[in-house]
Design goal:
By secondary structure, the protein is α/β, with parallel strands linked by helices. The chain has 14 helices and 12 strands. The strands form 2 sheets. It has a 7-stranded mixed beta sheet, sandwiched between helices. A 5-stranded mixed beta sheet has the order 8-9-12-11-10.
Length: about 400
């Protein structure tokens, strides 16, 4: 079946007993057993497994083209489960362009266990390969990255890692954070990734009303290790949250197309605006590694980042003049949001690191909702005009 069909039906068949079309919200903490050691349909205790969570995990695994999925209370909880695979003195190889919350986990939580992080010189397969060492256990990547939308050839990266063995004779695991593209637009497992992670809070949920995270894998042994941690650590997805995410999945293909359409329109507008210094959008043919969009993606997320002319004062004036775009953390909802990465999503990075990778005070990240693109462009234009003292203009 095609993706849009799977988004509606995978893991979401009508209830065999009642005929209910929607998956029931299983609000129970425990399950009756038929005898000592005899579980009914495999359920024992809701932390270990729950019908609502199992249905969502089935859906996500199917949509990512994987065999197993595990759902967690947040994207960060999912990341923590992956990092639990590490042992003291292990090493993570990553790139400079990663989510600030991931950077915080690496450098301010797991460093106390003796786990080190090696940052590749550039976001390229060659640089990642060159950064591998005898201690490397995980390679952690994002493509497109947050917030500069840097693209990485995932298939080539996986191929280069495949031929490497660390000091234990093991191939490092390739982790791909697939939050930005969502399963609708990119499937890293098919490109050679070992682990795919998601902040389901974003496009998968799609309505800014639920927090969640997920991991998808193919390898049985790896799944068993992560499943053990999910149960032992206990940061699982609540049943009602599973229901909301499952509901979001049903419209994911439709929403992603509208997000993408709005992103193209807004990116083109910003590129032609005299008050904008630089626009970051992989849909432009002159964007670095633009050819990877066609090679490994089926579409682009509704994210556009840009640098406004002027300083932080200009940014603040611009934010104050907006009527539709909402200044808030997160992305991927039906409403359009914007954020200031330097003080919000990437505040955990030292200023020197932010400057080095281009997260400057005049950088703004937009998350396009599903509103009419003309209205979004009007909002941006009018605020830019007010910010820089020129007359407002309207397209409608």
């Amino acid at each position: 079946m095609k993706f849009a069909t799977l988004a509606v039906h995978a893991g979401q068949r009508p209830d065999a007993h009642t005929g209910a079309v929607n998956v029931a919200v299983s609000l129970t903490s425990t399950f009756q057993m038929d005898g000592i050691g005899e579980l009914r349909n495999g359920f024992e205790y809701a932390r270990s497994d729950n019908p609502s969570r199992r249905a969502l995990e089935t859906s996500l695994a199917t949509l990512e083209g994987g065999k197993h999925a595990l759902c967690f209370a947040s994207g960060q909880a999912a990341s923590t489960a992956i990092l639990d695979l590490l042992e003291p003195e292990n090493e993570i190889v990553t790139t400079a362009n990663i989510y600030g919350g991931t950077y915080r986990l690496f450098h301010k939580v797991y460093n106390k266990y003796g786990i080190t992080v090696r940052v590749a010189d550039e976001t390229t397969p060659e640089s990642i390969q060159n950064a591998l060492s005898n201690k490397t256990t995980l390679v952690w990547t994002e493509s497109p990255s947050n917030p500069l939308l840097t693209l990485l050839d995932l298939a080539e990266t996986a191929e280069r890692i495949k031929g490497f063995k660390n000091g234990k004779g093991e191939k490092p695991l390739l982790v791909v954070d697939n939050t930005f593209p969502s399963p609708a637009f990119q499937n890293p497992l098919a490109l050679g990734a070992d682990i795919v992670s998601h902040s389901c809070t974003k496009y998968i949920g799609g309505h800014s009303d639920v927090i969640g995270g997920a991991i998808v894998v193919n390898d049985e042994t790896l799944w068993q290790k992560l499943k053990f941690y999910q149960n032992a650590g206990g940061a699982v997805q609540a049943p009602m949250d599973c229901y909301l995410l499952q509901r979001g999945l049903r419209t994911l293909p439709l929403r992603m197309k509208k997000h993408e359409e709005n992103a193209y329109r807004v990116a083109e507008f910003l590129r032609g605006n005299p008050h904008v210094k630089e626009v970051f959008f992989p849909g432009f043919e002159d964007f670095p590694n633009h050819q990877l969009v066609a090679k490994q993606m089926k579409g682009l997320p509704g994210i556009v980042s840009f640098k406004i002319r002027g300083s932080l004062v200009s940014v603040e004036r611009f934010f104050a003049g907006l009527q539709l775009f909402i200044l808030a953390e997160s992305l991927g909802g039906v409403e359009s949001l914007l954020c200031h990465p330097a003080s919000m999503t990437h505040a955990a990075l030292p200023e020197s690191e932010r400057q080095k990778i281009g997260i400057t005070d005049n950088l703004i990240r937009l998350s396009m909702g599903i509103e009419d693109a003309d209205d979004l462009i009007d909002d941006l234009r009018n605020s830019l005009n007010c910010c820089f003292g020129t007359a407002p203009k309207y397209t409608t």
